[in-house]
Amino acid sequence: EGLNSNRDGLGFYFTNPSNNVLRLNGVNEYVELPVSKGLQSQSALTLEAWIKCNSKSSAGGVIAKDDTTNRVFNLTVLESSSGSANKVIFNIYSGGSGQSVTSTSVVADDNWHHIVGTFEPSTKQVIYVDGVAETTDTSSIPSTIDLSTDEANTPIRIGSFENNSLYFEGLLDEVKLYNKALSASEV
Question: Which positions ≥6 away from 31 have C-beta within 8 Å?
């Protein structure tokens, strides 16, 4: 809805651009999507969201199918004490190990940012911030994402990981999950 310009589709300014968004407290709030075969892709994947948050003292899961034991994927804002302070990381898991890409831009700066992680099996994994492909990995990209019975039964959460950890604090809007890797022009 034009959050980066605070205007609607016709160009008029929003009276309050922070209305009609998901406000999460970073303590115990999240949205959980029930386990569904329609949300169980083992192939190409894109995770997308608009986020607005301050500097993070702890990491915050934006969208995750991950309970830190049964791990499938996550898009997470990193904590301020990490080597990639206040940046976004996109993880996918295959064969029990993770494959990740991290943004170069800081996103925890109290501004709206459009973040997107794409995974194209055996080809590449990309993290985008505000429409720019910031990090692309083409080495050792797995052909599938983990989805054993345990992982298949792990719900998708918006705003935290499934084991009640890594709660996101801030605003989220237009969180989306695709069963394909969006191209740069689609992002």
Answer: 22, 157, 158, 159
